[in-house]
Write a structure and sequence with these properties.
The chain is an all-alpha fold. The protein has 2 domains: 229 residues, no CATH class; 152 residues, no CATH class. Helices cover 69% and strands 0% of the residues. Helix 2 packs parallel to helix 7, helix 7 runs antiparallel to helix 15 and helix 13 runs antiparallel to helix 14. It is globular. The relative contact order is 0.10.
């Protein structure tokens, strides 16, 4: 038991934040060298090229193999917002992009959780954050934006919450789910209107570098690409239906998922003063954003893992919760790592390593959120 007490003491020590911060920044540097010097970071190359294509007036959604090996699938606004990284030398920009993703998760968890829990949460989120950085993707940033939107609406920072939702939505559309955090507020209408205004401003932001007709053409091209992309199912709950031989389109299943989230929120809105419940709902939404994303992939695990960590730390300790946490973390967060023997990976097909455990986790969270407040054990409010 003494080693466990020493670990717990380390996380409670404020100095642990310095060591964890160093670990996150060091990981960003190592990944930059690994992928930017000795390999080709395809996703970063796509993002970087999108800015230059935008200001040059070229169609963002055309495959250009001389720039990268896949399509750009984000909004024109994201292409413009990537300017600070695109104008830097390639490897320097990649390092800055990795640092932004790493620190976004680090500080979002720090802003959200009590001091005695944040170090453990940052440690558990480290591996999936590292995996996302290895692909130079935006998933860590998206997770942080959803968390920051929650904190902002919780504390009455309506404009900050609106901007977090809007930036998340122009990066990957599904962070719009974070707008649900504004619904329990008494000033929900104002919060929603501010969020809509922020999104409209961001949608129009590329007008600073392109004409209205050129921007309209970009959005038409993006829409056409998205229609094709919507038929491709990744490691999502929709993919599980496909694997079971049910060739259903994604949108009805996604609509059911959205309805469940809203039903839970409406049913528990009267208990919103319970921060345990609020944090559990945040975790529930984070996992939803991965599980019901038709193009979900292992690199998006950082979003779901952050949600699971938040849910677990906010919940009373129990054997079944711990078992679910350990199994899901091992399958989703660790099984894909290079250290895991290939023989084990071959035994664990991708459904077992990603969508099935996340589905079980989401249903466990749903069960928790269905318990009346009177049956809950309250936890201390954070400052």
């Amino acid at each position: 038991m003494r080693p466990l007490k020493q670990v717990a003491a380390f996380f409670r020590d404020p100095r642990s934040q310095r060591w964890l911060l160093v670990a996150y920044v060091s990981a960003a540097l190592i990944v930059t060298i690994q992928r930017g010097v000795f390999a080709f970071p395809n996703d970063y190359a796509i993002f970087r090229a999108s800015f230059w294509n935008l200001i040059a007036g070229r169609d963002l959604y055309v495959l250009r193999l001389d720039q990268a090996h896949d399509y750009f699938k984000y909004s024109p606004t994201f292409a413009l917002l990537f300017a600070p990284f695109a104008v830097l030398p390639f490897v320097v920009g990649l390092f800055c992009w990795n640092v932004v993703n790493a620190l976004a998760v680090f500080f979002a968890l720090r802003l959200l959780l009590p001091r005695d829990q944040v170090g453990l949460a940052q440690t558990l989120a480290f591996l999936p954050t590292l995996r996302s950085m290895q692909s130079a993707q935006s998933n860590a940033l998206v997770a942080a934006l959803i968390i920051f939107a929650f904190v902002s609406f919780e504390r009455g920072w309506l404009w900050r919450g609106a901007i977090a939702v809007a930036v998340g939505a122009v990066t990957k559309i599904f962070p719009l789910a974070a707008l649900s955090f504004a619904l329990p507020r008494a000033d929900r209408l104002r919060a929603i209107l501010i969020s809509v205004l922020a999104m409209l401003l961001l949608v129009a932001l590329p007008l600073v570098v392109v004409s209205p007709s050129a921007l309209a053409a970009q959005y038409r091209s993006w829409s056409a690409l998205e229609k094709v992309d919507a038929t491709l199912l990744g490691s999502s709950v929709m993919g599980l239906f496909r694997d079971a031989g049910l060739a259903w389109p994604a949108w009805p299943i996604q609509l059911i998922g959205c309805a469940v989230v809203l039903a839970v929120l409406i049913a528990r809105m009267g208990d919103w003063s319970d921060r345990e419940l609020r944090l559990q709902f945040l975790g529930f939404v984070l996992v939803f954003c991965v599980l019901f994303n038709h193009r979900a992939e292992r690199q998006s695990a950082v979003i779901a893992i952050c949600g699971m960590v938040i849910w677990y730390l906010a919940s009373p300790r129990s054997g079944w919760r711990t078992a679910v946490f350990v199994i899901v973390y091992a399958l989703v967060g660790i099984s894909g790592a290079d250290l895991v023997p290939h023989a084990i990976k071959r035994l664990l097909v991708h459904q077992i390593r990603f969508p099935i455990p996340l589905t079980i986790l989401w249903l466990a969270m749903l069960s928790d959120l269905s318990v009346p407040r009177s049956a809950r054990r309250p936890i201390a409010e954070t400052a």
